[in-house]
Amino acid sequence: MLRKVTQGFVIAAIAATSMIAADKINGAGATFPAPCYYDWAYNYQKATKTRVNYQSIGSGGGIKQVSERIVDFGATDAPLTPKELEKANLSQFPAVIGSIVVAHNIPGVADEKLKLKNSVVADIFAGKITMWNDAAIKADNAGVNLPAEKIIVAHRSDGSGTTYVFTDYLSESSKMWKSKFGIGKAIGWATGVGGKGNEGVTNLIKQTPYSIGYIENAYKEKNNLSAATLQTAEGKWVTATLPNFQLAVKQAKWSKKDHFYSSLVMQDGSYPIVAATFILLPKDKAEANAEVIKFFDHSFRNGDKAAQKLGYIPLPVETTNMVREYWAGK
């Protein structure tokens, strides 16, 4: 049976044998975790016969739809602040962790061979560095055949949590970027072409020689794209690998009080663009929330291998236990 708890939140006893499962759970939002959520939904339907319909429309769309109570849950890579959550009457918890890579399509330059200082990445996306053979790029790439070709920047055209995380990284990397562009789900890009979702930017990079863009690592792996080697916060070269992502995860400072509002960008010694992605629940939809929670609880218990296979990082057990306490209002 379902049981009500205090603090305006309702949680289901996860194993409710007498309850008939909902026919469908509807969610929408971030493209960043979409491949993982699709896999989790497929396995959840096999196990429970409950369908989870997830629309990969971008974090901005997910926030809007759950705020308007169009879907049962929203998904965003840009966590909402406690004040924003209170205003929209929402709760928030992390679901899985991923990373953003700076992918490129330079003919003849293989994966991880191109080194880009974090400040150089900021200058490229700000339109200050416009050619692949610019001295600032060549300085760190002896032996790499950098062409005298114009850099074509690919960025998101929609409201995007991936953009939020990426611009957070750029703001940490460059005072110029922080003062001129700042952090946001949508910004006024100085240069480049826009694609909708991680899918759109991925396709732009694949189809456009001499392009560069930011995408979630799972999209890079799935499409066999090349990505740049970046820098840690201390300036050491670091590649986009699971151990380097996990170093950031270990430093996460989660707090139930702040609804898990935290950044994993530029953590000491780790790959610099790591981020959790979050689920938003309406506090006034107790019955629907119980079904959504059962889906994510099942995925936390059974979905780690699927997440890792797709290039994501499952939440640590300590974090999923904290999320369950949050669901229960403890």
Could you walk me through the main structural features you see in this protein, from its secondary elements to its overall organization?
Strand 3, helix 1 and strand 4 form a beta-alpha-beta unit. Helices cover 37% and strands 20% of the residues. Strands 3, 4, 5, 6, 7, 8, 9, 10 and 13 form a 9-stranded mixed β-sheet that branches. The chain has a two-stranded antiparallel ribbon with strand order 1-2. Strands 11-12 form a two-stranded antiparallel ribbon. Helix 4 packs across helix 6. The protein is built from 13 helices and 13 strands. With 330 residues, it is α/β, with parallel strands linked by helices.
Q: Which parts are unreliable, with pLDDT below 50 for 5 consecutive residues or more?
A: 1-21
CATH architecture of the largest domain: 3-Layer(aba) Sandwich
Cα-atom Rg, whole angstroms? Answer: 20 Å
Tell me what portion of residues adopts beta-strand conformation.
15-25%
